[in-house]
Amino acid sequence: MMSEKSSIHQFKMRGAGGQEVDFGQYVGKSVLVVNVASECGYTPQYGVLQELYETHQDKLAIVGIPCNDFGGQEPGTKEEIISFCQKNYGVSFPITEKVQIINPPPHAIYQWLCQQAKELGMVNTVDWNFHKFLLDGNGALVGSYPSAVSPIDDEILDKL
User: Fold this and answer.
1) Annotated catalytic, 114?
2) Could you tell me the residue range of the domain that residue 149 belongs to?
3) 40, 67, 85, 114: which is the annotated catalytic residue?
4) Which of 31, 104, 107, 142 has an alpha carbon 20 to 30 Å from 158's alpha carbon atom?
5) Are 19 and 126 in contact (CB under 8 A)?
6) Cα torsion at 37, 56, 93, 134 (round to 10°)?
7) How many domains does the chain have?
8) Which domain CATH number covers 128?
9) What is the phi/psi pair of residue 59, to 5°?
């Protein structure tokens, strides 16, 4: 049940490469959860996310979650998504399996993130690709940022 989860650290997802992405491994680090897509105007944010990850990986985890709900802009298979990310942007942070966010049923992690944002009076709907949710080292939501907000915006950097 969603209400039983008190932090992002209680979630696990299947990675696009088959490995498990256990958010419990990120205790003590900020976590930036981003819904990603390969054919979006915001796709170049992959490069910015990778730079952010390389610069702050001692205190920041980034998890990219592919989704095809917004404009059908992530049509690829998991293999195609991983290949695209690595070839074009050198992505080394985890990419999960593709999930649904607005099409039913939304993935449990997005149900939880949107509910947390709503309770905290933050942007609580994901309206497009590259929406960012920032969580602190305790797994609590500290920010929700629409697609147009850069991953290196001061709003985000100041909370790392």
Assistant:
1) no
2) 2-61+69-157
3) 40
4) 107
5) no
6) -50
7) 1
8) 3.40.30.10
9) -130, 5
